[in-house]
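Sample log: Caspase recruitment domain-containing protein 19.
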Amino acid sequence: QSYCHRLQHDMYFLTSTSRLNEQVVDKIVLQLNRVYPQILTNEEAEKVIWNPKASLHTRLSDLLKHLQKKGDRHCQEFYRALQINAEQLFNDLPSRKILKTPDPTEIDTGKEQYMLNDRGPVFFLACFSVAAGLALFWYCCNSETQVTGRARRILGFSPIIIGRHVRNICLLYLEDISRN
């Protein structure tokens, strides 16, 4: 978004309810007058600063319209002067708030990281235990291996990993295999 469009968007905010006082406006105008290349000529600066007949709202509106006509570089220098002389107001600008909000289509990697890890370490250990138990069970039930005695000892000491009912079923199955 160009600075001219941002300034057009922020114009009502800047001119409403005297957010800028006369001293800050004067500092901004003087800074724009002194910047190289000169953004405001001496005549333009005098017209904005020392016009006793016009209100601050009118002078500020005229200044913003004049900067928009001059181009993007002039509007950018106004924002720089505003940031230097009224930083809190600069941070509260509506166009700044739009720039700070993230794009809804953009993927937030930090948020996605938490979404993948929201179950915690206990869930991981439970899944790993089930997978290890099933792998051990598959290995023991394979007809080519003759390790039922060792598997029986391992399954006998595994009430923590798999529940008592599952362990009993596994032991009964191993006994049936060894009988056949």
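Observation: Residues 107-115 have pLDDT under 50 and may be disordered.
Observation: The chain is about 70% helix and 0% strand.
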